[in-house]
């Protein structure tokens, strides 16, 4: 698979081989928040297959159609997964977390294959803030929730759960022990930083999870959106630095006096696509809550200020 020609080299519904045990099927749900769409990963080359992040339920494009930026439905994706699986048996359906662009297709895929839904814990949270990513899937019903370090095995492959809360409290990554690959869901992506949206998104947990991945020795990351990451340590180090820089920007803004989040976003995210202002505001809020817990900031109505100011 030629990642250098991304995204021109991919089509919704096509199966693309990344390494002997890893294939990708792209869902037809592109958007400003999902990039080219949700990537469903198939693990296994023999009689048993694991499916990671089966994606959105619903319909829209036909299998094999080019990406359509204005169509975010997801028609035929389960059928595309089944076509890619072929005569093999699906033995595990795993979700990294329960946003609606990741987990809803788990139920119809289970119905079609009989495979158990294994992985992250259920989480159905009502968030009244301006969301930039998908809302939670209230119908997700796993047969088994994996603990950190717990493994799922099949013919020729082993996947190990790596707990990475932050983007959501139930987020898991999955390590393929045979090749050193890590399926990172929305926790680490190359095309964009992850949205950390309170009340469930937690910046301190997110930073700790980034540090956890930095200390690992994974060879490649396969995220749920965007190209593979072939230099994972370098990217994670940069992401940690980026979040620390954002924190410094917030402290600088508040050094001039109390400010509303929207005013800080305007200063910190110059030139940002207006459709992403909500995402930026949620991440700023997550930083402010983290600083508040550390005794640095306090909220006053719609504004925030430094405690010693």
From TrEMBL:
<dbReference type="InterPro" id="IPR041516">
    <property type="entry name" value="LACTB2_WH"/>
</dbReference>
<dbReference type="InterPro" id="IPR001279">
    <property type="entry name" value="Metallo-B-lactamas"/>
</dbReference>
<dbReference type="InterPro" id="IPR050662">
    <property type="entry name" value="Sec-metab_biosynth-thioest"/>
</dbReference>
<dbReference type="InterPro" id="IPR036866">
    <property type="entry name" value="RibonucZ/Hydroxyglut_hydro"/>
</dbReference>
<dbReference type="Pfam" id="PF00753">
    <property type="entry name" value="Lactamase_B"/>
</dbReference>
<dbReference type="InterPro" id="IPR036388">
    <property type="entry name" value="WH-like_DNA-bd_sf"/>
</dbReference>
<dbReference type="Pfam" id="PF17778">
    <property type="entry name" value="WHD_BLACT"/>
</dbReference>
<protein>
    <submittedName>
        <fullName>MBL fold metallo-hydrolase</fullName>
    </submittedName>
</protein>
<feature type="domain" description="Metallo-beta-lactamase">
    <location>
        <begin position="37"/>
        <end position="225"/>
    </location>
</feature>
